[in-house]
Amino acid sequence: MAPPRSTGNSSIRSQTRPVHATKPVSCDPQKVDELTTQIADLKVTVDGLEKERDFYYGKLRDIEVLCQENEQKEGKSDVVEQILEILYATEVSADDFEEY
């Protein structure tokens, strides 16, 4: 059996430092509970906002499809054209809100 071959300079070895866990500055159980409750409340809020966003997105999508179908059947009407313009607008400025 042949001796193992050297794969490089054996005098250079990778040096690693030991990993030490850092301890928290304070470990107040009351503060941990308070923050845990706050996180749970924020998650509930985010879930509600996501559901609301999806709900209104679905409504807007239905309006878009209805306008596109109407546009194809009857040609462009002014109202459908204005609705599609609003739906496809990329930015909303404060001036746009004054129109409504």
Layout: helices, strands, pairs:
Elements: H1 29-74, H2 78-88, H3 94-98
What does this structure look like?
By secondary structure, the protein is an all-alpha fold. It has a domain at 29-90: Single alpha-helices involved in coiled-coils or other helix-helix interfaces, CATH 1.20.5.1430. It is built from three helices and no strands. The chain has helices at residues 29-74, 78-88, 94-98. Helix 1 (29-74) runs antiparallel to helix 2 (78-88). The longest helix has 46 residues, at 29-74. It is elongated and about 75 Å long. The mean pLDDT is 80. Keywords: Cytoplasm, Cytoskeleton, Microtubule. This is Microtubule-associated protein. One of its GO terms (molecular function) is microtubule binding.
Condensed summary:
By secondary structure, the protein is mostly helical.
Largest sheet: none
Mean pLDDT: 80
Distance between the termini: 88 Å
Structural class, by secondary structure, is mainly alpha
Count all strands and give the number.
0
CATH architectural designation of the domain at 29-90: Up-down Bundle
Per the principal axes of the C-alpha atoms, what is the gross shape? elongated
The share of residues in extended strands comes to under 5%
Query: How large, in whole angstroms, is the Cα Rg?
Result: 31 Å
> Could you name the CATH topology of the domain at 29-90?
Single alpha-helices involved in coiled-coils or other helix-helix interfaces
CATH class of the domain at 29-90: Mainly Alpha
Q: Give the uncertain stretches in residue-range form.
A: none
Order of helices and strands: HHH
How many helices? The count is 3
Helix share, percent: 55-70%
Subcellular location: Cytoplasm, Cytoskeleton
Organism: Ornithodoros erraticus
Keywords: Cytoplasm, Cytoskeleton, Microtubule
Region (Disordered): 1-27
